[in-house]
Design a protein that fits this description.
Protein name: Protein TolA
Number of helices: 5
Pfam families: TolA (PF06519)
InterPro entries: Tol-Pal_TolA
CATH architecture of one domain: 2-Layer Sandwich
Order of helices and strands: HEEHHEEHHE
Shape: flat
Structural class: mainly alpha
Low-confidence stretches: 23-37
Number of strands: 5
Distance between the termini: 108 Å
Strand order of the largest sheet: 4-3-5
Length: 335
């Protein structure tokens, strides 16, 4: 830090000398009437002064940086020396600890050898007693082995009988599984056949409905032409319309019943039973509620589960038909 201050001071002195060097002081020998003496001065260029000042500041900053780097190197060197000192102290502590540990292990080894010698003498004394005891134990074990062999023969026989029973039970289980698999395959085939038949019935019902609608339209046109303005015409149209709505409600009821039966899961014990349920639907066919009205309780529980699994039923575009389908009773019978 001291060399940096010395360099900075020298640079400032040099700047003062340069400034004084550029000044020229002269005196005139001839006195003027009013002023006895005049002094002439040479003006110093500010640019030169600024350049010299910048140079001095740059040199001063460079000196500060060099001094900072020198101090940093000294600090790093001091840290390295401190680390080396700590490592050497740790090495000496490790050497001392290892020496103490070796001495302790040597003392323990001597103690262990003495204890083992004492134990060896005691073991030699007991060896004879143990040999006699071992002979008696051998004779006892031979007798136990003979008894164990007899017990093992009985156990093996029981094990073979158990294995035979397990094989028989496994064969029966496999037979039942195979029967169940075949039954499920048959049920799937029957369900698929029922679905196809229901689809055909639906298409036929739709065809009949279209035909009925066409005939109705023809009848209405003929009635309009023949009985225009007559009161009976309105009555006949209303009757035909009501019949058409009832037919469509019945057709959609059959479709709903078929959809429910396709998802109905029951056993053969419910064959011949029936369940009457009431369904409330939204205008789009979404299931809102289902209640048991009559019939077998087990079948009705299975029916309600099947209805919930359908959840969405197809609806027509006709508002009168939708109004009747929104609150409908259906009778479900196992196929």
């Amino acid at each position: 830090m001291v060399p940096a201050l010395a360099i900075s001071g020298g640079l400032h002195v040099l700047l003062v000398i340069v400034l004084l060097w550029g000044a020229d002081f002269t005196s005139d020998a001839k006195p003027t009437p009013k002023a006895g003496r005049s002094i002439e001065a040479t003006v110093i260029d500010p640019a030169v002064v600024n350049a010299q000042a910048k140079k001095i500041r740059a040199q001063r900053d460079q000196a500060k940086r060099e001094e900072a780097e020198r101090l940093k190197r000294l600090e790093q060197q001091a840290k390295r020396l401190e680390q080396q000192r700590e490592q050497e102290e740790q090495r000496l502590r490790d050497v001392k600890r290892k020496k103490l540990e070796a001495e302790r292990q040597a003392r323990e080894e001597q103690k262990r050898i003495a204890e083992e010698q004492a134990k060896a003498k005691e073991q030699a004394r007991l060896a004879k007693q143990q040999a006699e005891q071992a002979e008696r134990e051998r004779q006892r074990k031979l007798e136990q082995q003979r008894k164990a062999e007899l017990a093992a023969e009985k156990a093996e026989k029981a094990r073979q009988e158990k294995l035979a029973a397990e094989r028989k039970a496994e064969a029966e289980r496999q037979r039942k599984l195979e029967a169940k698999r075949k039954a499920e395959e048959q049920a799937l085939k029957e369900a698929e056949q029922a679905r196809k038949e229901a689809e055909q019935a639906r298409k036929e019902a739709e065809r009949r409905a279209q035909e009925a609608k066409r005939q109705q339209q023809e009848q209405e046109a003929a009635l309009n032409d023949l009985f225009s303005g007559l009161e009976s015409e309105a009555s006949q149209r209303q009757s035909a319309r009501g019949q058409f709505v009832d037919d469509e409600v019945a057709r959609y009821g059959a479709i709903f019943t078929q959809m429910i039966q396709q998802r109905l899961i029951v056993d053969d014990g419910l064959s011949g039973q029936e369940c009457v349920v009431n369904m409330r639907l939204s205008p789009t066919g979404l299931l809102l509620n289902v209640e048991q009205k009559a019939g077998n309780s087990r079948l009705c529980r299975a029916t309600k589960t099947a209805v919930a699994s359908v959840s969405q039923f197809p609806m027509p575009d006709d508002g009168d038909i939708i109004a009747k389908l929104r609150d409908i009773e259906l009778t479900v019978r196992p196929n």
